[in-house]
Amino acid sequence: MKFTNGFWLLRPGVSLFPAVQLQKLETSEHLVKLLFSTRKVEHRGQTLNSGLVTVEVSSPAESVIGIRLLHHSGGKPVSGFDLTRDPEPLQVVETESLLRIHSGDTTLEIDSQNFAMRWYYGGELKTEQSARGLFYAETPEGSQIAARVGLGVGELVYGLGERFGAFIKNGQSVECFNEDGGTQSEQAYKNVPFYLTNRCYGIFVNHSGKVSFEVGSETVNQVQFSVAGQELEYFFIPGSDTKQVLSRYTDLTGKPALPAPWTFGLWLSTSFVTDYDEASVTKFIDEMQQRQIPLSVFHFDCFWMREYQWCDFEWDPRVFPDPSGMLQRLKAKGLRISLWINPYIGQASPLFEEAKQNGYFLTRPDGTVWQWDLWQAGNAIVDFTNPAARAWYQSKLEPLIDMGVDCFKTDFGERIPTDCVYHDGSDPMQAHNLYTYWYNQTVFELLERKRGQDAVVFARSATAGSQKMPVHWGGDNSSNFDSMAETLRGGLSLGVSGFGFWSHDIGGFEGTPNPDVFKRWLAFGLMSSHSRLHGNESVRVPWSVDEESVAVTKRFVEIKAKLMPYLYSESVECSKLGLPLLRPIFMEHPEDPTSWYLDRQYMLGSKVLIAPVMRADGTVQFYLPKGEWVRFETGEQVSGGVWLSETHDYFSLPMFVRAGSLLPLNEGPADFEADFTKTATLKEFGPVSVNDSVWVYSRQNPSGLQLFYKTTE
């Protein structure tokens, strides 16, 4: 939130109390505790009638420094995220006016007489916090506590979850609070209170409630983040580049699990409100096979269950009288099966009374079940802080897995009330964003138990740490080029927020795409981490758009299958390091200043550049970073450091490989599940050395195999 009225004044009703002067210092091996007065104290009488700001400094991992800011300590404990902390000892050097605290290559320098905090990494000043850098405030909305971190000249901010507005966050006010707002608003399904900058550091706010960020939008040369209450914890996470920053951030919050190879193939959905039964589903699948379009997963959306009864986890017998037999027939065609679920139980569901009697729902303060009529009539919400409710929910899914279901689309989880009571006493404001974590964790853990390495969800909502349970998709976009662009911005922002694997509805969810939009989106969607055909009121089988869409679909599924040894091997590294497979250009080309501004193109892994076409006439403008590049299709070498304008038909898009790269490719029939260490062929893009090599991984050989391009005689 904003506290000031311009540079000089405060907003009406706001009183602000910053850390000003160090009054007391306590040190131990893993903690430095500082007490700051909120005004200059020149004699003991000035200690009366004023507050203190407590600052606790720790290091949860080497070179990462945490700040816990505290005003009053008598309130309820503040919820944070599930973090992996391996406390590092702090080295403290004190002089007359400066305090230097070291962890690894990071130094926090504190001016104890005139508050300032300066953050160094490898001896380089990264950022600083000066006057009003730490403060608490009394406002008409209640008590707030906040920090301000400097924005240097030319410094750019990214991240804060999957956000569909401008990719660079400078100038934006961002509320980290999950909402079901589609892709055309400032709201987000996946809020993550973490940002990184082109100065190669990140700030992570360990607060699961609403965190308000003012990114140069209140004080133009600072990022301010604030929360309601009396306590705030944040971490300064530096690195030699943005990859190392993300790796250290995901050391804290968790690495993305590695999805199974089959998940990278094409997913086809029934779509949402379309009419379907076993005959229509089978017809879709058979026609995909007849048209030689490789298909990996078939997804049944909401109406696999009866209307008004979501969720009862029972097949609608009117259209699926033999679900077990149907699934076996579909799986005999080589398919995996996905089912839509959500964490809500409508009042008409046979499960409602059972859950109500056992106390498995969120309740109101008076003890009644929290219900409303949004989505399903009499909707109640499963309380995943109750271990018995988690086990109960899993018990309803387990028979479906035994029947042959491979994974679940874990939809919703954003519209969670803040006037409810949780089984474990969680504060509902602080539990709001965490709800999606508990929900998806419940489902993912069951899938891990039943499916092992094949465990995967297709989730819409998320928060910090949810990357451990992939895959996530971009939510309810629209069937036009504008929405295609905002979808990509959302995916790039999510990637720099710690998420490794991401998808989106090809052609857009709302509306029916025209042939231009659909065919261009096919190329983008199939050159993404994960690829799904899904819509709202109309199906997305390609022949429903036009016949050429069939050929375009086949073309790009085959290109993705060809890339699969490369994509899977890159995904192994993404999982190990905490990097996104679909990543912004700057992550691979930070030395090129232009790369920091690009949001209509991306790197797919470390070596392949993709620029989706987002115009009906097929024209596309894109930038090749400095260096030499090779067209994937033709082998033509092009010098970078330039903007290019090209026109592409529906069967191509700008796709370049860094010169000097070796890519492991599948040159045979489309196969997303082969042992790539045995089937991959190394292809040279630009000149490489005789003994150049790449590591290739597969499910069959998880340790990987080093493949050499050529060896000397």
Structure description:
By secondary structure, this protein is an alpha+beta fold. Among the domains are: 223 residues, Immunoglobulin-like (Sandwich), CATH 2.60.40; 251 residues, Glycosidases (TIM Barrel). The protein is 20% helix and 29% strand. The protein has 11 helices and 44 strands. The strands form 11 sheets. It has an 8-stranded antiparallel beta sheet. It has a 6-stranded antiparallel beta sheet with strand order 3-13-14-20-19-16, with no helix packed on it. A hairpin with a 3-residue loop joins β34 and β35. α5 packs across α7 and α9 packs parallel to α10. It starts with a strand and ends in a 5-residue tail after the last strand. It holds the Pfam family Glyco_hydro_31_2nd. Keywords: Glycosidase, Hydrolase. It comes from Aquiluna borgnonia.
* Helicity range: 10-25%
The CATH topology annotation of the domain at 261-342 and 387-416 and 427-565 reads as: TIM Barrel
Low-confidence stretches: none
Percentage of β-strand residues: 25-35%
- Strand order within the widest sheet? 4-5-6-7-21-18-17-15
Q: Please state the structural category.
A: alpha+beta
Reported CATH architecture of the domain at 261-342 and 387-416 and 427-565: Alpha-Beta Barrel
CATH superfamily of the domain at 261-342 and 387-416 and 427-565: Glycosidases
Give average pLDDT, whole number: 97
Just give the CATH class of the domain at 261-342 and 387-416 and 427-565: Alpha Beta
How many DSSP-defined strands?
A: 44
Domain Glycoside hydrolase family 31 N-terminal: 54-214
Domain Glycoside hydrolase family 31 TIM barrel: 256-569
Family: Belongs to the glycosyl hydrolase 31 family.
Organism: Aquiluna borgnonia
